Structure formats: C-alpha cells, structure tokens
C-alpha cells in the first residue's frame, strides 16, 4: 500500500459508460448522442473528458444476450461494441485512465480471457481491469450451446477456479524471462517460463501463456454482487467492489461486511475499494437540476410504473433511479457523496450518467471542483497505472525465486559461424 | 490473361520477421513485440505504402523452443486487442485478425469481429484457423486436439453461423428517432434458432450489422478440407505453392471448388505468402542472405549447461515450421529430408552433382532452392551448409534487388498463379523499408500496384462487393423478433 499522505483519504471515481445514458430516455435528451454506441471517436471523447477530470477508470459493461425490448428500458445495453475491442481503441486515445472490460467466465475459456486482459494491459501500459460477472442473463446459455444457465453455486465454483487459472497464467512468464541477446542468440531464459500445470475440477490448463507478464503483474479485478458467494469472491479476489446504491444504512452494512470478509483473507481495508453506483443530475441550482430530471422522465416512452421489465435487473434499476441517485446543486451533490465517503459507506463512486455527454460534462464542471475544494479528490494522477491510482502495489510473481536463490542461468550458445 | 491486372498486397506482421535468426541482425529490433508504439510504426509504414491489409497471426500455445525457430510466435499481444488499438492509429489499411474455431465460441467471435469492423469503419477481416499447434488442447481442458475432420466439421458450421449472426440486425434496424422515441425496428432484428451438430445458438447478436456487411474472411486453404472451407467461405486464400506451376494448379482447383458451390470464382483472391529478401541489388541481397544465415543456431552450436540438444526437452512435435527446430538442424536431419545419407560429409563440403541425383524429388527441390537463394552452384560452390540453411529457413523466399523481386512477382501475376502476395519480412524494420522503398516503386513503375487507395473499406481495396443480408436474401430464414412492429 503506497497510499495517500496520512490523514488524507481521497475518493476513487469511475464512469460507467452507457452510450445512451443510464436513464432509459437519456438518448432523447437534447444534446445527447442517440447513435454514439458505434462511434469510437465519441467513446474516446467521453473517456478523455473524465481522464482530464482525473477519474480512476472508465467502465465498459457487457451482456451476452439481447432482446429488442431493451430499447425501451436500456438501449445502451441492447446493443454495443464488444468491450475488449472498444477498450483497446480507448487505450490508443488516452494515457492515464484505467479501463475496465467486463467478461463473464461462465462463457469464456481462461486461456482466451487471460490473453485478452494481459494484452490490453500491455497496450494500455498497465491500465487494464477485468470486471468479473457471472451472468445476470439466464438467456446467454442459449447463445452458447448450453442447455441451461447454471445455478449460482456452480457459476461461482467455476468462477473461483477460473480466477485461479487466469492469475497463474499471468505469472507464467517471470518479468525478466526475455533475454533477447543478439550476441549469444539466447532469446528467452527457459528457467523463467513456467507451465502452470493446473488440474482442477473444471479446468486442465498446462500453460504457459503466450504473452509476457502484464505490466501491472496482476490486472486489477472488479466484482459486484450481494449474494454470499459473490461477497466471498469479491473479498478474496477483487481490488474494487461495485455496490448497489440503496440507503446509507444498507451501504454501511455491506461495506463493513465485505471489508471484514477481506480481512479474513489477510487483506487490509485499503486493499479493497468499495464503490457504490451513483447517478447524479447536477446544475448550478437545485431548481435547474430538478427541471432536468423532470424533463428526462417526461421523455420516457411509457409511464415509469408500466415499464417493460422483462430485461431484468437493469430495467428495474432504471425504475429505482431515485433510490441511488442524487439531484441537486454542486454543494448538495458533494454533501451526499461526502456523507457516504466519510460515513463508512463508500471509498468512492461508480458514476452512472443519466444522459451522455451532458451529465458527464456537468459532473466534471460542477461537482469535481467542489470535491477538490473540500480535499476529497485528486487534482492530478500520482501514478500512471490503474493499480497506482488505487494505491495498490504490483504483486510478486508466484513463480519467482527469492533473490538469494540464484537461477541456473540461460543456456550458452557458440558465436556465429564465419564463412 | 488480362494485361491490366494489378497486385493485391497484404503484409503479414511478425515482430521479429520470418528468418529464424532475423532478430539477431544488427538492423533488427529484437525486443519490441510488446511495445505497441513499435507495432503502430510498422502498421503506418504498411499503410503509407498502400498495402491492402496488415495481418496479425495467432496461436493458442507456446513453448520456449520457439526461440530458435520463430521468436515472433513465442509471445505476442492478442490480435483483437492489438488490431483495435491499431484501428485508432491508422485510417485506410485493412486489419486482419486470426481467430481459431476449435477453441472459441461463435457468439464471441461474431461479436469481436463485428465490433472491430465498427471500430475500423469497415477495415476488419477474420483469418479462420483451426489450430496448428496441438498443444492448445492442453490449454483448453481438452483431451485431444482433434483430427482434421473433427476440426473442420466444427469450423464449417462455425463460420456459416458467424456470418448469419452478423446478419441478425438488418442495416436499417436502428431508427433512433428522438421525437417519437422509437429506437429500433424490431421487424428488422432476427433470431437464428440455430441447431447444428456442434452449436446451438439462438441470437440475435448484440451488435449492429458490421459496416462491411460481412468482414472479409481469410483462410489458408491448403489441405483438402481447408480448400473446401476456403472455396465456400473465404474471400482471400493463401495456399502454399512454391512454384508458378504448382500455384496454377492450386488456383484452378480452389476456383473450381468455389464455382461448384455457386460462387463467382473471380471473387476468391489467391495471395500466397512471400518473403522477399531485398537488397539494393542482387549482389547485396545475396550478401545479406549469407549474413542472416550465419546467425542461425545449428545443433552443433547449442550448449545447454554442457549438455547437447538431447538435454533440452522438446514437447510434442509442434507444427511444420518447427520441424526444422533444434535437434533437427544437423546433417542427420538433412539426410532424412534429402532421402540419402550425407552425414559423412562436412558442412563446408561442396554438393556434388552425383550426390544430388540420389536425392528424393523434395530433396532435389531443396538443393535447387538453396542454389537459387544463395546464387551458388552445385558442383562448384554450393555447400551442404547452404542446403541445411534452406531446410531451416523454410517458406517462400525470393532473394534479389528490386528488379529481380518485381520480375518474380510480375511473373506470378501474369501467369495467373496469384492475385497478389501476403508479403513478409525476414527481419524488421529494415526489410520492410527495403520492400516499400525499393520494390514498391518498381512495381508502380510497371503499373502493377496502386499509388493511392481508391476506397476506404478492406472490401473496397480488394474489389469485393458488400454482401446482401443472408437472412433476408434467403427468404427470412431468421425469425423476426417482433413481427407486430413491422414496417411497410
């Protein structure tokens, strides 16, 4: 833990990128982009906006099934770019901000996913992160030749072992495995490249990975969930936990529970960051902010209580917006955030922008300066990797030898022939 | 044979080139495979030269023995993430990504390729492979890699399924009318309800139809099953012919197969791989050839803690290219390849014409290849070491100055043996610059290669039309999801 100076704790902020906003009618709001989901330049622009505001990360969600009915409740989730391709294109247009890609282990192989994440970490120079979801979409099974979506216990058993395999693969090349000495002809030191030889309940993976170790050593891992299994997985493996909003009382209870579970795995409270979702509608005055919210709600295609919720939890989340959102002037918004941050309910927030880019611009222009005025948020990035933004050290390689134990050394080759 | 045909040129990116010791050359960048700025620089040079595409290969297993055969495949960025990064740093060149059908899911590959096509605004291409390194099975919880029939049965269904997933959203499916609140037209979005031997996929995809309709499909097209897959699905096929005569036979075979499945055979482009080893003139190129080969590690050079190569465990035999790896780089291995025993000779002995006659057909061709590349002659100055080097550095190589190399490419094109080449470099970046700086201008002087892009998508570069939607063209095989929402 490198951490902030003693006595000064700062919030961590992420932006959940939904191209048409997290409000079901956000895309209809004046100035919003209705067709931004496929415009990578737009996505890059929004990312740079929050990078200039020094956010910790941009978050790309994912689902593995769609239904056009989502157009009414959540068009941003109905169809969008695949997260790893989008994340890499974002990496090419930014330099500091963390980039979170969502992937569901239930429908992936650990070798493929370990590669995608390690590669994104190399391309972004240490800014990659994996949001591990186990699948809210029962219908995904029908797109992956599966008879059924597994029940929770099996999905988490699978995910637990999956994470172990991915983490071992990331370590399969020691940091100094590449020799690349043109004089001797030795390219790698084979003693620093490790098969993982994993043989478990669900996976048999020999390794090694065919990528160099990620710049962060271990890519930052995110997880969300309220079930017992989900809290355990998060407490053991996640660097960042997303939590639902709800009331400050329920948030405090969740926060304390997860940190306590993490402590049982030997992890300190600063090694796991709990970031509840927060939807903000802010304007110079409270009256203006309320007017924006009313205008948004008026644009909903049907009365809110008649929304089609076949889409599942996210459709419902839209309906419950007011439970976890805040509408007001900058002081009111920051008061709310500060209360949670200092009240044992949050280490920061995952911002849900109701409409894009307008609500993001309003947040960076009005809320971020007020946060800084109170010393609650950074004015500059202290590091350049996502781990550094989170104050996390780069982990040791599990295959690495202690410095006192010498390597056998690379093989020697004779010098080149002379003709 | 039309006189006005021009070449299509792809560039196959190997971070350290195709020569097994290319990375050791003083002009090579040996340590930049994970430096994305380096890859961007290479891709931009390829785009500046107006190549049709920049090609990223892939494998799903590795082993440290690759360091002596092909350092480029030892470890490298994953292709979809790398291509998406390059998309932002380039604007015209096509981006080819390799994805394996044996170890992935059609829904995931359809999303990745469609997403890349959106991010590149229509420059994406999928190189379909079924797996050349059987060790992949050990990384994917499989008992075995599967034989060619098993892998191609799956690949056939996989590719046609991905095409239909790309089509599940018709081009006009998005309305996005802020006034009325209509976001999509459900009548133009289709499920597949596909149930086949290997896959059951309901659909629709959760992405808008790709800008190219279908990203360009590439395939190697070498074995029987591979040719059949290429004939049915590929827009571009590589083949593996080494001579004009072989290539003519190959081209007529795959085109006949394409015609037999109802395709226009002219829309199946054949681009063989080719490593031009370029010098300012022939003499300089041959000197470079010798210089590079001197850097190849032969078995007699290897010392592993005092033990010879037998002390260094080789895993399961990997692919063909690795048949020339450590333990197979000596006169014993060469004898096997030639079909007669040369172990009594010294590497520096001249190949005598009597000995050559004992060689098998493949062996005689190898000797001929060594003579052609080195410019030396049997019975005079061609040595067994030259032949061993030709054995170790396999593949389609032509050594020369710009005139010789342009002559070679022009001869293949005019004979109808290809539509262009998938160009590779022996090492980077010097050999890429030599090709773009010396050979490309020569090709342009002869009217054989474009001076400027005429289109913006890869399909346009290749002269291929945007395909109709297979679901609607075939009488709506797919099921509209919301028929009640249909428009007139």
What does the main sheet of chain A amount to?
Answer: 8 strands, parallel, barrel
Mean pLDDT of chain A: 90
Shape call of chain A: globular
| Strands in their spatial order, largest beta sheet of chain A | 1-2-3-4-9-10-11-13
Largest sheet of chain B, in brief, is:
10 strands, parallel
Account of the protein in words:
The complex is a heterodimer of chains A (419) and B (488). Chain A is α/β, with parallel strands linked by helices and 419 residues long. Chain A is built from 14 helices and 14 strands. Chain A has helices at residues 40-52, 70-73, 75-78, 83-93, 110-123, 152-170, 228-237, 248-264, 286-298, 313-319, 321-324, 330-342, 358-373, 386-389, and strands spanning 12-16, 57-60, 98-103, 128-132, 178-181, 186-188, 198-199, 204-205, 220-224, 240-243, 273-282, 325-328, 348-352, 412-413. In chain A, strands 1-2-3-4-9-10-11-13 form an 8-stranded parallel beta barrel, surrounded by 8 helices. Chain A has a two-stranded antiparallel ribbon with strand order 5-6. In chain A, strand 7 and strand 8 form a beta hairpin. In chain A, helix 5 (110-123) packs across helix 6 (152-170), helix 7 crosses helix 8 and helix 12 crosses helix 13 (358-373). The radius of gyration of chain A is 23 Å and the shape is globular. With 488 residues, chain B is α/β, with parallel strands linked by helices. In chain B, 36% of the residues lie in helices and 11% in strands. Chain B has a 10-stranded parallel beta sheet with strand order 10-9-8-4-3-2-1-14-11-13, with helices on both faces. The interface between A and B is large, with 81 and 87 residues. Strand 14 of chain A pairs antiparallel with strand 12 (302-303) of chain B, so a sheet runs across the interface.
